[in-house]
Amino acid sequence: MRDMVLPSRYAKAILELAVQEGQVDEVGRQLSLACQCVLGDAALAAFWRSTRVSAEDKRNALQDVLERLDALTLVRNAVNFLLDRGRLLHLPDIVKAYNELSQELAHSVEAKVTLASAVPDEVASQLAEGLSRTFGKKVVVRTEVDPALLGGLVVRIGNTVIDGSVRGRLAAFARSLQ
Questions:
Q1: Distance between CA 92 and CA 33 in Å, rounded?
Q2: Would the pTM count as exceeding 0.85?
């Protein structure tokens, strides 16, 4: 796992500026989009790492991307600052840290809920309400389907995992028999 101290510092600084401008959500969305456009695959990352590409060409390429995204001034300045400091490759970690900090600010957390089959939106909403009561924060549920669970669900919030799946219960039962 990469050291998250540096990305967290940049994310905190960007978040403070976004709060001052009242654009926390939009800055987060645009940072994520910029990260995807700039470092979306290995070839793009190789371009930014390359010592054969001049700093001017990198800056021009970045300006073109930010222009096409119609990025906010704050996002433009932040991404350009990262390029100037040789930290552009840290952008994915900075975006992750930014999202975590902005969720803390909003007193919310994201829950990744893996289910054996798809559920209606109303069930996901009820699950979010129940998790919100349990954790004392607003919980945003992101669902995924994994038929290998056989039934039930697995909830991941931060480092907390709640395994209520049939597969998990069968594995626990098998361990108890040994």
A1: 10
A2: no
Alpha carbon separation from 147 to 6, 13, 102, 142 (Å, rounded): 38, 42, 33, 16
Q: Domains in the chain, please, with CATH?
A: 5-104 (1.10.520.20), 109-177 (no CATH)
What distance in Å separates the CA atoms of residue 49 and residue 91, rounded to the nearest whole number? 13
The answer for residues whose C-beta is within 8 angstroms of residue 158's C-beta and 6 or more apart is 109
- Residue 118: CB atoms within 10 A of its CB come to 10
Segment 24-38 mean pLDDT: 94
Tell me how many degrees the CA angle 113-172-116 measures, rounded to the nearest 5.
30
- Provide φ and ψ at 23, rounded to 5°: -130, 40
Q: Which residues contact 18 (CB under 8 A, 6 or more apart)?
A: 24, 26, 27, 28, 74, 102
Phi and psi dihedrals of 156, rounded to 5?
-120, 120
The percent of residues in the chain predicted with pLDDT above 90, rounded, is 52
Q: Identify the residue whose tokens are 């594995």.
A: 171
Report the alpha-carbon distance of residue 64 to residue 97 in Å, rounded: 25
151: Cβ contacts below 8 Å, ≥ 6 apart = 116, 165, 166
| DSSP character string of 112-145 | EEEESS---HHHHHHHHHHHHHHHTSEEEEEEEE
